[in-house]
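[step 3/7] inverse_fold.run input=structure_tokens len=425
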């Protein structure tokens, strides 16, 4: 079998930059995957890694969770795509709404980007207003409405607005600092053409940044007062932070919610849902258009239904285990870095964390950018050498999965110890 180096050389000739999504690249070339199971991935070079990238948070239950594979396999015998309705679409939407009561009506789509694009178009159609507000460093997908001061891969390469985006579109996306309710308040006093405020309730796309005490409550209050649609982008936090996502965790009810990632545990499915009067704006009964050949396809829907069933069935074990393992990792890494006198911050919540090499608390994009990126790169490289794969960027989050065992956590702490020594050098 070809090795990663040769495959990357081949890939570069036919795939721009050799990868199909920017964050997958790192120097000098990424490992190519042979297979994955549970909490582990194997590469074509004979190495294996404990996987804490977890498909950027999608694999809450780990790779190839048995119930999901069984249900998808059963569905494959019955057909892969009909483009006509199925009962499982209805069942999945009912299940999602059961977990997320604010999602009174739901459309199933394929990706988080499609979900946020639809959410914003709905907000504009519903309010008949034009502009939207997003927060610096939040990432809501790779479309023009939201690709302004975005986190994730765009932050990693320092791109504020993508070339090829229309100024006319990005000018209608106003940007406010995360955790800065005051700045939002001032903007709302000046602007009266705001259709929506979209936010990651926990920001997982510039490392991990937590909402400060009153931030999300302030957003809810301010948007409600001005008839602005509040969109919680729960593509990362949905099902990960609790069975009802961040909105349940923080007890805040948004108008529209977007879900993705853990909803399908490795299969491409996402959802947009919210108040009936907003969702009923969708075509054909309403005048806001949304469509896709693959929306609600039976393969992804069977994966979604199986995921939600499994997550709900396991919930009394799932969330406590994830939180316990995450807290254990975070406290061990913090102690190690402190003993080595490495200035650092670790932000963490539920099953997510990230380390920043800085003295300053990381509460927004500008404080995240002050962290030492060279040290982070060293950490990433040394972790990889020691059998632990995290996303190759400071502007991403470390995600735990249910498949990580006690021994995996111990092994991970040892790998972080070695990696921190490499950072220290
Ligand atoms: C919070 C958030 N919203 C939306 C998206 C876009 O989802 P997708 O990559 O499935 O289009 C992402 C992707 O990382 C995300 O993290």
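[step 3/7] decode complete -> sequence:
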């Amino acid at each position: 079998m070809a090795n990663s180096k040769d495959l990357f050389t081949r890939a570069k000739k036919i795939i721009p930059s050799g990868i199909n999504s920017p964050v997958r690249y790192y120097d000098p070339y990424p490992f190519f995957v042979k297979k994955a199971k549970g909490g582990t991935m194997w590469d074509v070079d004979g190495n294996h890694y404990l996987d804490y990238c977890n498909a950027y948070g999608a694999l809450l239950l780990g790779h190839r969770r048995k119930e999901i594979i069984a249900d998808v396999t059963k569905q494959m015998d019955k057909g892969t795509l009909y483009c006509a309705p199925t009962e499982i679409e209805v069942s999945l939407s009912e299940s999602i709404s059961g977990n997320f009561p604010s999602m009174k009506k739901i459309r199933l789509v394929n990706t988080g980007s499609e979900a946020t694009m639809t959410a914003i178009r709905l907000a504009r159609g519903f309010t008949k207003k034009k502009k939207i507000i997003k927060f610096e460093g939040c990432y809501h997908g790779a479309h023009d409405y939201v690709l302004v001061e975005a986190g994730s891969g765009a932050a990693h390469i320092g791109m504020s607005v993508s070339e090829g985006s229309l100024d006319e579109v990005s000018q209608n996306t106003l940007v406010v600092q995360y955790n800065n309710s005051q700045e939002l308040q001032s903007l709302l006093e000046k602007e009266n053409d705001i259709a929506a405020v979209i936010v990651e309730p926990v920001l997982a796309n510039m490392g991990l940044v937590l909402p400060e005490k009153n931030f999300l409550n302030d957003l809810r209050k301010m948007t409600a007062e001005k008839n602005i649609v509040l969109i919680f982008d729960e593509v990362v936090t949905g099902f990960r932070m609790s069975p009802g996502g961040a909105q349940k965790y923080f007890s805040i009810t948004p108008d529209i919610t977007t879900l993705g990632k853990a909803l399908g545990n490795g299969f491409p499915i996402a959802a947009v849902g919210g108040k009936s009067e907003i969702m009923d704006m969708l075509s054909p009964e309403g005048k806001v258009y949304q469509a896709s050949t693959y929306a609600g396809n039976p393969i992804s829907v069977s994966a979604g239904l199986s995921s939600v069933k499994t997550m709900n069935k396991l919930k009394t074990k799932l969330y406590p285990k994830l939180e316990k393992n995450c807290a254990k990792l975070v406290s061990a890494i913090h102690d190690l870095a402190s003993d080595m006198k490495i200035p650092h911050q670790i932000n963490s919540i539920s099953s997510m964390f990230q380390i920043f090499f800085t003295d300053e608390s990381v509460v927004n994009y500008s404080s995240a950018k002050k962290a030492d990126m060279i040290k982070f790169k060293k950490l990433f490289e040394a972790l990889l050498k020691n059998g632990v794969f995290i996303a190759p960027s400071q502007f991403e989050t470390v995600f735990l999965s249910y498949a990580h065992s006690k021994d995996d956590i111990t092994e991970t702490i040892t790998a972080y110890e070695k990696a921190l020594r490499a950072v220290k050098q």
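[step 4/7] annotate
The longest strand covers residues 194-199.
The chain has two domains: 4-63+315-424, 66-311.
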